[in-house]
Amino acid sequence: xxxxxxxxxxxxxxxxxxxxxxxxxxxxxxxxxxxxxxxxxxxxxxxxxxxxxxxxxxxxxxxxxxxxxxxxxxxxxxxxxxxxxxxxxxxxxxxxxxxxxxxxxxxxxxxxxxxxxxxxxxxxxxxxxxxxxxxxxxxxxxxxxxxxxxxxxxxxxxxxxxx
Length: 163
Ligand code: SF4
Known about the structure:
Bound molecules: iron/sulfur cluster
Strand content: 5-15%
CATH class: Alpha Beta
Structural class: alpha+beta
Strand order of the largest sheet: 3-4-5-6
């Protein structure tokens, strides 16, 4: 089974979350923060935006293929390693399928900020290492233990972890 872009992000956010998600426990669609994120994605760039599904692996928010740029919109307050890992995986997937892209831009509309992740052989290696780690985490018999951290208060799994 191919990992999803979300799973690449979760690997860097919380490995317990990654495990729960892969094993079918998915409260996030009912969670306000996620819905706000979807809404931001829909409203902030409505003129340019055209989602592009990547099979079961994820969805590009939109892309400018002639320029070799893909785009992702996030509601998060601060850019995180997970966001970069997710778009790196999309760049890797596209390259593997012969679609030449040179960078991914991650938009944080609430902060009026954009981060850029550039495609490179080193990035490809890092994606492949992440894929290996995802496979190791999701093959565990039980999820990694819940350890409270700052992001837990905003995580859709909080009740699952700390009820
Ligand atoms: S609530 Fe915290 S420990 Fe539980 S999945 Fe979310 S981030 Fe991980």
